[in-house]
Write the C-alpha cells for this entry.
Amino acid sequence: CPASPVQYQFDPVLTLETSVLGTEHMLNLARRTGARLLFTSTSEAYGDPLEHPQKESYFGNVDPIGKRACYDEGKRAAETLCKDYRESFGVDARIVRLFNTYGPRMMFNDGRVLSNFILQALLGEPITVHGDGVQTRSFLYVDDLLPALEKRLEIESDDWRPVNLGNPDERRIIDLALMVKERTTSESAVTHLTPEDVPNRMGDPQRRCPDISRAKVLLGWEPTTVFSEGLDKTIADFRRRLEKRPHVIVFGTSYGLVKGPAEQAVKEIIERLPGWEFDILAAKIDPQLPLQSHEGRVHVYRFGRGKNVDKFLFPFHAAWFARTLHHKHHYQVAWAIMASYGALAATLFSWVLRTRVPFLLSVYEGNIEEKMLRRGKWLSVFYRIVFHHAHRWQVVGQMTELQRAWLEDERHVQAVQLHTDPRLLAKRTKEMFQELEILSTRL
C-alpha cells in the first residue's frame, strides 16, 4: 500500500481496498497453505496521538472521516482481520507497526518528507516545510528495519500482538530541513507552506515517536544507524541517480504544434518527474520546426521534411529510431499519445522490433460525436491492434460517470474527465508510469 499522503490520498478507495481486501486475500492464502504471515501496519494507526511516545497498547486518536482515514483506518481494519483470522482459523498472523523508514532507492517525488527535502535541495528548489515545522517525526534507516522484520517473522512465539519498529530519535521537521540543506551544501531556501497551500495535509500528526521497549524484549532488537550516517548515504544515492536519470520515450506525432490537453499533460508529467529524462519523437509536419531540440531534460526528435505525408511515415521512422535510442538508454517506460500514428509507432517499437518495452496508450478526446463513431468503425481493426498491444490504457475526454465507471470496471482503462485539473491528470498519468516501471522488470 502506498505510504505517503500524496500517494494514498490520490485514490483513497484503492488505498482502503489494498489494505483490507489485499490483506484478506493474503490471510486466505496463508490459511490454505499453512504459511506464516507478517503484516506491516503503520504508526498511522495511532493517528494524531495523545500519548507520547506511542506504546503498542495505545488505541490511537484517529478521525475515521478525515483526509488520512483511507490509510489509517485501512491499516487498522487489516490488523483486526489478522487477529480474527488467527482466532477463527488458526492463521499464524503477526503484526508490526512501522514508523518512518528511509534510505537509498526511495522514489523521487513520492510525497515523503525526507525524499522531498533531499530532492528539492539537490535540484536547487525551495525546501518546503508544512506549517511552522515544529511537528516531529522519527526516522528508521532501512538497514535497521530489515533484520527486525526477519526476527519478527522467524521467532517461535505465540505472542502475535503488534510490535513497534522505529527509531525513538525524535526530530523536528524544521531541523530536518536545515540539516538536509547543510549536508547537501544546497543554496535552496527553506520556505513554509500554510494549511491553505496544502489542504490535503490537514490532520498531520503533531508528534510521532515510537516506544520500542517491546521490540527490545521480544526481538532483542533496536536501531544502530546514526541518523546523520543514514542521511548521508541516502543523499549520495539521490545524487547518483540524478546524475544518470532514466529515460522515458514519448511518441507524440504533433508535439510542438497543438496546444491541447495532450501537450499540457506531457508538460505536467515532465515537471512532476524531475528524476527522469524525456525523449519525445514527433513528425516534422511544420517545416519551421527543427529536426532536433534539447532543453534541460526534454529531447525532441522530429522526422520528415515538413509535408503532410510525414505523419503517415512517422510510425516506421520513429519506431526504428526509438530502437536505436533504446540500445543507449534502456527504456523501462514508453508513452504513446493518441490512438493513431503515435500508438502504431509504440506498437512497432515494443512488439514488432521486440524491445518489449511496456507502453502506456493515452487517448485524448472531446465529446464522442457521431462522425467519430463512424470513423472508429472503419478503423476498428487498427484500434484493436494498438489497444491489444498496449500494456496500460488511459482515456481523457468528456464522459458521464456511468461511462467512466464502465471504462474503469469493465475495460480496466484509466478514465479521466477532459476538464480535470491538469495537476490531477498528471498524477493519474504518473501512477501509470510507476506501474509500467514495475512491469518492465517482469517482462
The longest strand covers residues 36-42.
